[in-house]
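Lab notebook, page 48
Experiment: co-folding of the full assembly
Goal: obtain a model of how the components sit together before planning crosslinking
Operator: M.T.
Materials (sequences as entered):
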Amino acid sequence: MVLDGEAGNAFLAMRPPGHHAERERSMGFCLFGTVAIAALHALEARGLSRVAIVDFDVHHGNGTQDILWDEPRIRFFSSHEMPLFPGSGAENERGAHGQITNIPLPAQSTGTLYRQKLDQIILPALDEFEPELILLSAGFDAHKGDPLANLNWEEGDFIYATAKLCEAAQKHCQGRLVSALEGGYNLSTLGGLVCSHVGTLQEHSA
Ligand SMILES: [Zn+2]
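Observation: model returned without errors.
Model output:
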């Protein structure tokens, strides 16, 4: 619907998540690499030539990286706490064409550090790449209250990231952005975080 202009952007409230599922195996609660499959579908079935994926789940998107390792038409960015499950995601893992950017974040760091990485690394790279569609692996487990990780992001940090990525989509691809739920394991905060994420998407929906 987003590619057909029937929706400005979209959010997929789905479980299980997908970004840990590799080419040959499921892992980390994930059965299929949903966002990687969506990006490949956009290329192969819908004729796009450049798709960007931004993964701000607190864990490394190892499955997305594995599936897209040799795919130069898809630019993949993953920010994640390191060290943490699944153990991969070092800066020197760059894909066969240098199209993958891993941004490790230290335990206990706040959203301020992520905002800097977004502004200084991801957004300029999106400007250079000029994607025709942006996909988000939207995990909310970097929140300070999440039991499976140790970053200290606040709700405002997720809103900041969402808004900046929507602005990048407006700049490069008529606002075309699709966000898919990944992790988020504190059920008392997940709903509110997702609601503010969707609200920010709606504010930017043409
Ligand atoms: Zn996660």
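Interpretation: The helical segments are 34-44, 62-67, 111-129, 155-173, 187-203.
Next step: discuss with group before ordering constructs.
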